[in-house]
Design brief:
4-stranded antiparallel β-sheet, alpha+beta, 3-stranded antiparallel β-sheet, single chain, Immunoglobulin-like
């Protein structure tokens, strides 16, 4: 497998080093990515997203949603005691898990709900006013020459 070289990105851009590092990490990661619990990522609006995880067998108290730096970390710890049960078939996995999602800048979590065996985490992208596009007025008047103030005339 070829290795991605982000060097050309560093020459032509400023501030994208984190993106290049993330691409490098993804491309060099093992092909064995965890598949438990299964999840969906959907776009619910122009600047809104939802992550839905199938967490059958977990109560809301067994689940934890945290944000550390730009990572959303969802963990599940099973508190169910199976010592007195004898299963003929066990198809519902309730093993502990940790699932990480890397969030882009200005994406924040707006809420989380546990409903019918699904954990829904709502996200919103909120651009600061300084990053939003703004229109600059174009003047048609000729520019007035700047008036120079001499230090000697100002003191008098």
């Amino acid at each position: 497998m070829r290795r991605f070289d982000p060097t050309p990105l560093y020459r032509a851009s400023v501030g994208f080093d984190r993106m290049a590092d993330m691409l490098d990490r993804v491309l060099s990661a093992d092909l064995q990515t965890p598949s438990y619990p299964p999840y969906n990522i959907e776009k619910t609006d122009e600047n809104a997203y939802r992550i839905s995880l199938a967490v059958a067998g977990f109560s809301a108290d067994d689940l934890s949603v945290e944000i550390k730096e730009n990572a959303l970390i969802v963990t599940g710890r099973s508190t169910e005691d199976d010592s007195g049960r004898e299963y003929l078939h066990r198809g519902i996995a309730t093993r502990a898990f940790e699932r990480r999602f890397h969030l882009a800048d200005h994406v924040r979590v707006t809420g989380a709900r546990h409903l019918d065996g699904m954990l829904h985490i709502d996200l919103a992208r909120e651009l600061p006013e300084a990053l939003k596009p703004r229109r600059i007025a174009i003047s048609t008047e000729p520019r007035k020459p700047a008036r120079l103030v001499d230090a000697d005339t100002q003191a008098a």
